Amino acid sequence: xxxxxxxxxxxxxxxxxxxxxxxxxxxxRFCGLRREAFGISILTRxxxxxxxxSTRGRSKRISASTGNxxxxxxxxxxxxxxxxxxxxxHGAALxxxxxxxxxxxxxxxxxxxxxxxxxxxxxxxxxxxxGRMRELQSEHHMKALGLQVSAAGYDRQGVAGxxxxxxxxxxxxxxxxxxxxxxxxxxxxxxxxxxxxxxxxKVGFTDNVVTAKDIIIATGSVPFVPKGIxxxxxxVITSDHALKLxxxxxxxxxxxxxxxxxxxxxxxxxxxxxxxxxxALDQLMPGFDPEISKLAQRVLINPxxxxxxxxxxxxxxxxxxxxxxxxxxxxxxxxxxxxxTLEVDAALIATGxxxxxxxxxxxxxxxxxxxxxxxxxxxxxxxxxxxxLVPHLYCIGDAxxxxxxxxxxxxxxxxxxxQVTGRDxxxxxxxxxxxxxxxxxISMVGLTEPQAREKAVKExxxxxxxxxxxxxxxxALAENEGEGLAKLIYRPDNGEILxxxxxGLHAADLIHEASNAIAxxxxxxxxxxxxxxxxxLSEVLDELFKSAKVLDMKTLRKMKS
Length: 561
Hints:
Homodimer. Part of the plastidial pyruvate dehydrogenase complex (PDC) containing multiple copies of three enzymatic components: pyruvate dehydrogenase (E1), dihydrolipoamide acetyltransferase (E2) and lipoamide dehydrogenase (E3). With 561 residues, the protein is of the alpha/beta class. It is built from 16 helices and 23 strands. The chain has 3 domains: 78-223 and 354-421, 3-Layer(bba) Sandwich (FAD/NAD(P)-binding domain); 236-351, FAD/NAD(P)-binding domain (3-Layer(bba) Sandwich), CATH 3.50.50.60; 429-560, Enolase-like, domain 1 (2-Layer Sandwich), CATH 3.30.390. Strands 1, 2, 3, 4, 5, 6, 17 and 18 form an 8-stranded mixed sheet that branches. α1 packs parallel to α9, α3 (120-137) packs antiparallel against α5 and α3 crosses α7.
């Protein structure tokens, strides 16, 4: 986010769901796959040539930063090389082909990155199961619909197989879509060896060196594990391990109550586990809008088999061994004194993610990471140790830390491709939505109410808040899912949308009307005339925008006079 405000979903500030490590990155992992991921290819290779990017109007000084690392080659193997074939790299590659660029993508692990293999995709498969289990287990919900069902059960291996199968399918489709469009997939770990030059290869084999006019770093992130926590992959696990669902513990502690922790609490409690949250801050779900957090806790935490400890660090976690359970030592976050010891069957470390940037060879181009993140400007151009731009080098996604969301990485990659093909483009991160796929879901875009009020005070304007309930929505009531709230934060003087937050049925799908409105600069006084089908959940947003009170010009003139 390009603002002096602290924006919890778009900055490299410490994660708010667990503060043991003061520089741990934000806990966000969501999906932004294009339709090609599902085997639908609509792109064709463009016949247009490349256009050199104009730098008119940009104040940042560009420095080659070559030092003793050689000079850029005069001819290139590729127009564009992307290091990392996750969602961000995939989105950039497809857009590059569409723009007529000869493109290669380097991947040392498996195509799809975290999102497809260890994140968004398999986690949504598990959450699909938990949602159905939760519905079938609710006698009150079934009775209200006039349904009778026998006791619901599940097959753990079948559930795990569902998550693995969908990940494999989408990984295969991603690979095939790039190959079909002419993207060269180069296997091996990529390292920058000099300006516009990358080597790649597998361990034990000779490295290959390739050159490109432009290079994009898209290496993503890995689970962050604070010091003092011993991960054995069996009883003390990260989200990578949890997605395999190798067993369902009777009692599991989840360290961190952000997006990852909340989603897994939804899965585990639906499958019969008891959950204990361990949160460093004084309240659960600190990264959400406070009003949404309060409602979500009432619905997602309090009625379920979940208890919690807030204001504490898990300073030491020892895996189960020799017949002993997992042992967790809790320390008071303020006094740093020992507070309690927990004994549980398993512990999930959901403390955020750390950038995967080691071994990239950034020292060869005089780039120094900041807490592991590659420094970039608003156009994703890499900045060297002297504060100068490194020519033809970009970094997108989790590796730059601007907004650790898979779809944000893809959007950044597309933005970069626009730039290298001659069209200046800056992504507005305030328009990028985020979602937590609990039951019900949580979604948001833009600023929280406290952030908006801080901005208003600093810049000298007023804000207003409008709200609407799912209880007033026909479709939600028909589904017997009236628990929910939509909240709009806006400027009454000009109708600018500052933030929208939704908690309720299909909130993750509903948020995009607000997201697109922010991206396009649409004002409330215009969007309130949009027509929504009836009866649909989209009318929640329709009522929300219609309830906002924007001052007319006559009233504004009176106020100013």
